Amino acid sequence: MKSRKDEVLEALRANPNEQTAQELADQLGVDRTNVSRYLNELTKDGTVKKIDGRPVKFQITTVSTEGHINFDNLIGREDSLKSQIQKSKAAILYPPRGLHTIIFGETGTGKTMFAECMYRYAVSAKVLDENAPFITFNCADYAQNPQLLYGHIFGVKRGAFTGAEETRAGLMEQADGGILFLDEIHRLPPEGQEMLFTFIDKGTFRSLGDGQEKQASVQIIGATTETSSMFLSTFNRRIPMQIELPSLAERSLDERLAIIKEFLQQEANRLMQEIAIDKRSLLAFLLYNAEGNIGQLKRDLKLVCAKAFLHHQTNSESEKLMIVEEDLPLVVQKGLLRMNEVQDKLTPFMDKRNLYLTLKPGTEEVVWGQDPNKDMEVYHSITYKLEKLGRENLSEIDLEELISDDVDQYFETYVEELSHSNAYREIISDDLWKLVNELYDFASVQMNREYDEKVRFAFALHINSTIERIRGNQFISHPNLNDIRRSYSKEFQLAIELSNRIEEAYNIMIPLDEIGFITMFLTMDNQEQQKVDERQVAVLVVMHGKSTASSMLETVQELLGTTHGIAFNMPLTLNTEKMYGQIKNYIQGKREEFSEGIILLTDMGSPNNFGNLIFHEMGIRTRVISMTSTMLVLESIRLATLGRSLEEIYTSVISMFQTMVRLEEPTQKDEKKVIIVACFTGEGVSKRLNEVVSQIVNLDEFEVIQMQSLERESFKHRIDQLITHKDIVAIVGTMEIHYQKIPFIPAMNLFKRDKILEFQDLLGSTITLPEMVDSLTKNFSPELDVKTLFLLIDDVLQLIRKDQELIIENTAMQALSVHIAFLVDKIKKGEERPAFENVKYFHQEHLLRFNQTAASLSLIEKQFGVHFIEDDIAYIVKTLEDNRIELGLHSV
Length: 892
Known about the structure:
Blueprint: H1 4-14, E1 19-20, H2 21-28, H3 32-45, E2 48-51, E3 57-60, H4 82-93, E4 101-104, H5 111-124, E5 134-138, H6 146-154, H7 171-174, E6 178-183, H8 190-202, E7 204-205, E8 214-215, E9 218-224, H9 233-238, E10 241-244, H10 253-271, E11 275-278, H11 279-287, H12 293-314, E12 321-323, H13 330-333, E13 356-359, H14 377-388, H15 408-417, H16 424-427, H17 430-447, H18 453-471, H19 481-487, H20 489-506, H21 512-522, E14 538-544, H22 548-560, E15 566-570, H23 576-589, E16 598-602, H24 610-618, E17 622-625, H25 630-641, H26 646-657, E18 673-679, H27 685-696, E19 702-708, H28 712-723, E20 727-733, E21 744-746, H29 753-763, H30 769-776, H31 786-804, H32 810-829, H33 839-845, H34 847-864, H35 870-882
Helix pairs in contact: 1-3, 2-3, 4-5, 10-11, 10-12, 12-14, 17-18, 17-20, 20-21, 22-25, 25-26, 30-31, 31-32, 31-34, 32-35, 34-35
Protein name: DNA translocase FtsK
InterPro entries: AAA+_ATPase, ArsR-like_HTH, P-loop_NTPase, PRD, PRD_sf, PTS_EIIA_man-typ, PTS_EIIA_man-typ_sf, PTS_IIA_man
Keywords: ATP-binding, DNA-binding, Kinase, Nucleotide-binding, Transferase
């Protein structure tokens, strides 16, 4: 009887088109959940492929008909591998059955692939039959059990040793008429070597436990990472053809570039997606020390392709998958340190017209035999995890910043931020607040502890967002769920009880990951966190020469009367990597002194790459300024001792001395100012905050960007990236974040009218008051003090806003300011003003606002000797009414 899983597989085979889990469930008359489980199992097996989308679809995997690699398309065939290929062809063609061969080479040099090329050549040269076997075996798999090892190679007769319950043919018999490839042949014990060269001498062998000799026509190809000294001398004599494959470091940059291109082309074809790699990333891959040779190069390229795919899936505006320097593994980034050492070899790769190497899908690809990463699993894994916003089971790659493990810090700062006792009245429902208090009253009894109001409020806000997420089928994986369950087992059990009551109240199902978050709210101790002492940005001076850096720094320190700054002299005989190692060790030894970041001042060359390495290896934000002079060092240290932020120091030094600094021109910043809305999950509360901010500000002038702030360092790094081309004027968030001197606005302030007014004042406007005065003075009577008038009007309008709690865009306030100024000028000139239709009715309808506005305008009347009539005031009140923003603050 067929299993349900087999039925699902047959249904997919019967219909080669893409199908959803629901369609298959309907077709088979079974539950959709079970079908979905079977499909996921078949996907992991490689039998079925998943097509991402909404909804997800599945299709039977088609068998690849791609060709195999051979000597004709092997990279290096006319250069580094030319003599090796010639020797291997001679070994294949040598009569009567070819020469046994051993291939020497480091791990990852392509020994298995080279052996496969030898087999393909033998078939094409008609030395072997088209269906001749090519058997591969890794001797290391059974090196600890010689009997099993010999049994696999030569076969076993029943009863030969304990556990040998049946007679079994060995690989030697299976390879008869073809080639037996023995990888890691050096793991074959001396006894095994003796057995093997007996076969080489006579063409005969014996199975274990069998006294009868057997014959076979087999060409042996061995591969090893060791030298010939590891083998018996008799063994070396019997394998006359020895081929040594070069390491990746011994191959030319042209060949290495070809390997990189070929692999990226495979990925582009596999994904049907254009892939671009920037020049510095390409240079890093060309120059870094890949200890695992081609194998490691391919793994590292696979990693960056996976990261590029991740970025493209989440937030990329480009149609290409972009491989950029910051996504490279640290070991690859260190390749840039070698640029000076091989400068002459890099000339062909330094075409300034080409900033990217682009590979388009569809180009015919050369297939690497036995490529373990040929499948799409890593990309399916990313897509699947993105749907869940999780990161587990991504074994091949390390998606460092998809979601952070540092959740504890979030709860400490998040709860502290949301400690405003009355805010719940405006942003969460009474029913939810009542339920939360009931839950915490119950928890207080169970845990024998008190939970104050700010913890309860933070929990209420979190549950409010959780309910919205669950109803919207958006789930968040807890990055430390297993640790939480082990460390807080009692709280976790209580969280399950609380979640049951929430489920009943709101008719939802709370997943286990959300229960993990609830657990963490129950573990809060609400102890006040001591603030870390404010530290200064560190200034590092790195210069070539025996005393250049220290002399320059001493001069600056003497001028400023400070000891701030660290000098690293770099003698010309000192290797760049050793210099970086010294700096790295120094920073690690005094890590707490670098919490505010590093300004790295260099003169030229490879040290310019140190900043990126410091950030990725130690997590310390670093800005690099090259072609440094004494003046640059002086200004950097002066600003650092004043407590300026990393970005302030960097931008200030660059703007003041850009004619002295050979760096890219400062990036032209976007016209729109940016407001960051930062939230723990990036959902729920963040979405509501975005809506509120978008109502308060003029979206033609401001851009609102939502960002996840779960992990501080990742968040700060993203700010560093944005600030280079955007003017960030404020961060609005649920957890307090002070960085780069950017004003921080607590989320609660956007639910209080008086605080919203302060927020608007902070943002300012596109046109400043002095600019308005300068541009409009010529339009007023000469005797009118325009500057004083505008200043007073601005004060009056701010008074009106605050007294009447009006939320109005700054652009509307500016327009009203100009209107009142011209109105005063008309009154002074005795010109006629327009009548307001039904002014009496309007006055009575808006009596309170009308009277409040008239009282505020009296300040202008007194100072400028004018009188506003009922029609004048009516126009001003109507403008205020028409531009007033209603936010609907009752719920998130």
